[in-house]
Amino acid sequence: MVRVRLEGIKMSWEDFQLDIPHLEAKAGEFLTLLGPSGCGKTTTLRIIVGFERPDKGAVYFGEKLMNHVPPYERNIGIVFQDYALFPHMNVFDNIAFGLKVRKIPRNEIEKRVIWALELVGLKGFEKRYPEQLSGGQQQRVALARALVIEPQVLLLDEPLSNLDAKIRERLRGEIKRIQRELGITTIYVTHDQEEAMAISDRIAVMNIGKVEQIGTPLELYYNPNTEFVAQFLGLSNILELRAVEGKVCLGELCFNVGRDGKVKIFFRPESVYIEEGKTGEIVSYELLPGRIRFRIDIEGTIIIAERFLSEIPFSIKNLPKRVGVRVKQFSIIG
Ligand SMILES: Nc1ncnc2c1ncn2[C@@H]1O[C@H](COP(=O)(O)OP(=O)(O)O)[C@@H](O)[C@H]1O
Ligand SMILES: [Mg+2]
């Protein structure tokens, strides 16, 4: 297990600058780079691999400076979005390829390929060709091919983006299990916040070439430092209000903030509780699987609330016009 560290990385093209003063994946950690398309996730991975040479800064594996170590000597397993399997080779040969290049003896290759196939649940598929496999199976082969070289670091760049929802969910669970089992330091790239939350030890949220915040999924979800992080991780309520004597109110809905002046109050829809009362007016609602999402107007500001159906004290067929609103968990942005 090795720690991966970026220090003072700068890289620029005409209309894009990547600027990462410090970023690290701890030894054995599952770190995800999460951000919208074009924010610099792939470039960051390419710098770690050594495909891209930054204008400034250093890449370390443990205490070892990697800047001048060529990609093939960095001992990294990589999985891309488009499986990138060799179409004319069967599954066995696809997985064995990296070992043959490394001149590993034949019987050792066989042992390791079988081990990798078992790991990804594809034992018995050795003789198939890529075109005879589903997208999910092809991506399992790509994962086996990355792991068979026993890399010290595993990098995955949107490995599930080309698969449909059901398979994506199953495979992300598998990736997580395998990562745990091997304890391999992993950096995973995605633009899908749900995937990032489900799979990661920590997430680094990226925006326009910068890391906006890094933390555990729950830290980022309930205590975002910026509006961008808040919005990117899911539905949010953000109220800009003026606090007086340590307290801000939107109509009857009050928050103790312990400071005065302008504040941005942040809370998730599921932190909003609905009860009997007159705090706000239900403008509309949507039914979701097992849940209901309200839009509630309080003094001209719309608040989103989400509850399980079983939690609201009214029948949906007979909703009152006005309801009581309570917020159980909030944080202050900025
Ligand atoms: N070789 C390159 N030459 C010029 N611009 C590039 C190059 N590689 C990436 N970029 C630019 O860098 C930005 C970030 O790209 P990328 O790292 O691929 O983002 P992401 O993976 O988050 O979608 C984009 O604006 C892209 O156009
Ligand atoms: Mg990318």
Automatic annotation (TrEMBL):
InterPro entries: AAA+_ATPase (IPR003593), ABC_SmlMolc_Importer (IPR050093), ABC_transporter-like_ATP-bd (IPR003439), ABC_transporter-like_CS (IPR017871), Mo/tungstate-bd_C_term_dom (IPR008995), P-loop_NTPase (IPR027417). It is found in: Cell membrane. One of its GO terms (molecular function) is ABC-type tungstate transporter activity. Signal peptide: none annotated. It catalyses: tungstate(in) + ATP + H2O = tungstate(out) + ADP + phosphate + H(+). Keywords: ATP-binding, Molybdenum, Nucleotide-binding, Transport. Its EC number is 7.3.2.6. Pfam families: ABC_tran. It is a peripheral membrane protein. This is Molybdate/tungstate import ATP-binding protein WtpC. Residues 2-233 form the ABC transporter domain. It is an enzyme of class 7 (translocase). GO terms for cellular component: plasma membrane; transmembrane transporter complex. Belongs to the ABC transporter superfamily. Sulfate/tungstate importer (TC 3.A.1.6) family. The complex is composed of two ATP-binding proteins (WtpC), two transmembrane proteins (WtpB) and a solute-binding protein (WtpA). It comes from the Archaea. Its main location: membrane.
